[in-house]
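In the design runs reported in the main text, the only information available to the sequence generator was the tokenized backbone. The following block is the verbatim input for one such run; it is reproduced so that readers can re-run the procedure and compare outputs position by position.
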């Protein structure tokens, strides 16, 4: 996740403008992914945008920190909706691929249980279903039901459709 905030910050810097305050100026409080995206969308519409955060670094929960010699993600580990990043770059006539390299992961997550079992949250719904089936066959149908609601939500918020498993 580390490169995303800085690449998005670079995008914002390249398209920033300075000048006197205007009634249409926009102030966005909070520079997590949500605030950064809102600021970029407002900027693409021609507003002068100021983005502030109480922390020194932008990115909100998408921070990375080191402790005890290990690197930790404070929040998102995988990008579950890459098309939303693509849209932000497209707003400025740029291509995300020219700035950020997204690499597919499989599995997305591996859960280790105290009894030595492990569960892989995989890159396709079919492979994830196979994992669920190993533990509890009757929950495969429940997972499909759980998928339907956020699938509708994601489709309504974007021109693109989610193609992989759900963000968890
Ligand atoms: C453990 C964990 C794992 C996750 N894993 C994933 C994942 O794998 N994939 C995925 O897509 N998503 C994942 N998420 C969700 C993702 O992290 C969040 O949806 C996303 O980062 C939220 O962005 P945001 O901008 O809405 O909020 P935040 O990232 O919380 O940003 C809010 C910002 O507002 C600032 N702020 C708050 N109050 C003020 C104030 N009064 N003045 C100034 N600034 C203020 C904060 O400092 C912060 O920077 C995960 C979240 C967590 C916690």
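Verbatim output:
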């Amino acid at each position: 996740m580390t490169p995303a905030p800085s690449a998005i910050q670079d995008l914002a810097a390249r398209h920033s403008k300075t000048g006197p305050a205007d009634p249409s100026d926009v102030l966005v409080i909070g520079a997590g992914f949500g605030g950064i995206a809102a600021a970029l969308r407002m900027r693409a519409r021609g507003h002068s945008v100021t983005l502030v955060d109480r922390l020194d670094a932008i990115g909100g929960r998408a921070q990375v920190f080191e402790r005890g010699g290990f690197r930790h993600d404070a929040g998102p580990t995988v990008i579950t909706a890459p098309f939303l990043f693509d849209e932000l770059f497209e707003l400025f006539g740029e291509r995300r691929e020219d700035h950020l390299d997204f690499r597919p992961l499989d599995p997305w997550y591996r859960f280790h249980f105290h009894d030595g079992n492990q569960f892989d949250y995989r890159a396709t719904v079919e492979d994830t279903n196979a994992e669920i089936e190993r533990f509890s066959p009757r929950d495969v149908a429940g997972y499909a039901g759980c998928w339907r609601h956020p699938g509708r939500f994601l489709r309504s918020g974007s021109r693109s459709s989610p193609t992989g498993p759900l963000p968890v």
